[in-house]
Amino acid sequence: MTVLAQSGPVEAGQLHRTIDWRGAFWVASGVPALVLFSIGGISGTVGTPAFVIWMVSVSFGLIQACTYAEIAGLFPSKSGGASVYGATAWLRYSKFIAPLSVWCNWLAWTPVLSLGCSIAAAYILNVLAPIPSFTETSPQVLAWLAEPANAGATAAEAIAALTAAATPAIRDWTLYSGSLGPVHFSMNAVFVIGVILMLVTFAIQHRGILSTANVQKFIGLAVIVPMLIVGIVPILTGQINWDNYTPFVPLAEAYSPEPGAWNIAGWTLVFGGMFIAAWSAYAFETSICFTSEFKNPGRDTVRAILYSGLLCLLLYTLVPFTFQGVLGLEGMLSPSIADGSGVGQAMAQMVGGSGFVTTIMIMLMILALMLAINTAMAGSSRTLYQGAVDGWLPRYLSHVNEHGAPTRAMWTDLIFNLGILAIACADAESFFFILAVSNCGYIIFNFLNLNAGWIHRIDNGHIRRPWRAPTILIAVGCLLSYVNAMFMGAGAKVWNPWALWAGLIAAALIIPVFCYRHYIQDGGRFPTHMLDDLGITQEDLKVRKAGILPYLTLAAGLVVVLVANWIFVI
Can you tell me the distance from the alpha carbon of 254 to that of 295, in angstroms, rounded to the nearest whole number? Predict the structure, then answer.
């Protein structure tokens, strides 16, 4: 099963075997930066237990990674990640469930482009056109109050008037804005900057995975080291206030500092936190998106996901713990932390810096977000590419350029995310709606792929595995698939009342897409090469050794989602 580096020329339309596990590790090094997307949102929703949410979530991710590492080893010639490897397990049981896995994984990963660009663009706008800051003792405020026309006015009124007058007009500019169902959209200055960042990301990846990995290595070092410093220095310097971890109860109401209780409403908020944390904390599984680009997939696959997971375990434990210990609940509830715009400044304060240090931290925040954006485009574009190669998605996505980059899939990612970017740039509510809908897809993908582990064991147990996970971890992963389903059913509503249903509708969009490819483009048959790694033919797909168990699994998962949605209310 081991595949060595290609010694001859690469055939047209194929990805290039040019990296080892270290390259995949650096491409996936953008995942730790995802904690900065929702660290404020989870704290504002859950309250004091938020730091434990991150610890538990990333631990779940490590356990689940064992299943993904095993099934990835079955397919040394495929790219696109765990969703592609798991889809083949479901193929025997339903033509429509299999592509659902690939589609939902892409729905989960691709919005990182738009969400990350919206935050990074907001930072850049703050640097280029900052909102002026005044205090009660500022000379401008005192002069304003001294004017006869403002007699009797308060300092707060003076600050508001001066801030409005001195705020750069570009911050209120928009080419077009409006509403779309439960969300708003705006083509404002942040949107324009975000589009430029997307194009920069495209240019980096146009030269293939080796070039992307090399760029990610340098950006990754520039980001991971400061995140470690921010996670460790406050602990060593005694800045942690241990009272900030008590009382250990969820909030009574999201974004309100009053403590609640461990009742139905409290658990609903906690499950909402676990639901949205999964989007970030499980995401290092993207390190196995590059199996067909590994020089030695049998060795590199498990190492890539293991070391990426350990890095995430460290940073997802340290950073939320330190943020909460230093800022406290009141600080974490700050709007600038919730929307991400104040995270860079908060990181500078944690290491005792101001002025120049703050500027450096903001620059590093932008780099961290670019790191995550690069990771997302690399992974999600390869999911589209492999989905097209294997017959799930339209054929045009299977094209690669002379550098081995799936450029048509990358363009599809970029164009799709232009619309998502306009929504993410509108307001925080719209931002988290996109995040919640995206994560519904991610939970569906996780459910299908964690159960694909034992289905592959039953149907394809005869195939050699370069790395075989302990059976107990396959079983625990199966159990976690239902835990994740509960998080989705109970927790999606915390972020938006329509998030769960919008997520299910978005997932169902694969049906017409797959029908077009399979029945119109391919005449009802899959490409002959799709099953080569398993050594079986399409006739072999009629043999279903697992019997009705996969169908019972799907039914039980749906029941868990619906029951959890009914029981857990805010």
Answer: 48
The dihedral over CA atoms of 270, 274, 280, 283, expressed in degrees to the nearest 10, equals: 170
With CA atoms as reference, report the closest residue to 84 among 104, 64, 65: 104
Cβ neighbors of 205 (< 8 A, separation 6 or more) are 211, 212, 374, 377, 378, 381, 405, 410
82-126 pLDDT, tens digit each:
677 788 889 889 889 989 988 998 998 889 889 888 888 888 888
Block residue for tokens 């779940």: 60
Closest CA to 376 of 336, 425, 435: 435
**Using CA atoms, how far apart are residues 356 and 197, in angstroms rounded to an integer?**
24
What is the C-alpha separation between 395 and 390, in angstroms, rounded?
Answer: 9
Q: Which residues contact 186 (CB under 8 A, 6 or more apart)?
A: 174, 176, 177, 422, 425, 426
Q: Are 376 and 221 within 8 A, CB to CB?
A: no
Contact 279, 442 (CB under 8 A): yes
Q: For residue 251, give the DSSP letter.
A: B
Peptide bond before residue 247 is cis, with ω within 30 degrees of 0: yes
Is 188 a residue whose pLDDT tops 90? yes
Sign of the Cα pseudo-torsion (483, 486, 488, 493, in order): negative
In 3D, which of 36, 9, 15 has the Cα closest to residue 373?
36
Residue labelled with tokens 């760029």: 215
Angle at CA 129, nearest 5°, toward 123 and 135?
Answer: 95
Both tokens of 545, joined, read 């050794």
Contact predicate 24/288, CB 8 Å: yes
* Of 351, 350, 315, the residue nearest 332 (C-alpha): 350
Neighbours of 398 (CB within 10 A): 21
Residue by residue, DSSP assigns 449-484 as HHHHHHHHHHHSTTS--SS---HHHHHHHHHHHHHH
Three-class SS of 490-541: HHHHHHCCCHHHHHHHHHHCHHHHHHHHHHHHCCCCCCHHHHHHHCCCHHHH
Please, are residues 369 and 194 in contact by the beta-carbon 8 Å criterion? no
Q: pLDDT by residue (tens digit) across 23-54?
A: 767 766 767 777 877 888 899 899 999 999 99
Helix (H) or strand (E) holding 560: helix 549-567
pLDDT tens by residue, 330-386: 888 888 787 766 777 787 778 766 667 777 777 777 877 777 787 777 778 888 888
Amino acid identity at 428: A
* 3-state SS class at 152: coil
Element at 52 (helix H, strand E): helix 50-72
Residue-level pLDDT at 264: 95
Query: What share of the chain in percent tops pLDDT 70?
Result: 88
179 strand-pairing partners: 184
What are the structural domains, with CATH classification, of the chain? 23-131+178-567 (1.20.1740.10), 132-166 (no CATH)
* Residue 279 vs residues 61, 108, 218, 334, 492: alpha-carbon distances, Å: 10, 8, 25, 22, 12
Q: Where are the alpha helices (DSSP H) in 81-188?
A: 82-90, 97-109, 111-128, 139-146, 155-166
C-alpha 450/C-alpha 68 separation (Å) is: 7
Q: Which one, of 538, 425, 464, lies nearest residue 115 by Cα?
A: 425
Place of tokens 């339309």: 13
CA angle 425, 428, 434 (to 5 degrees): 75
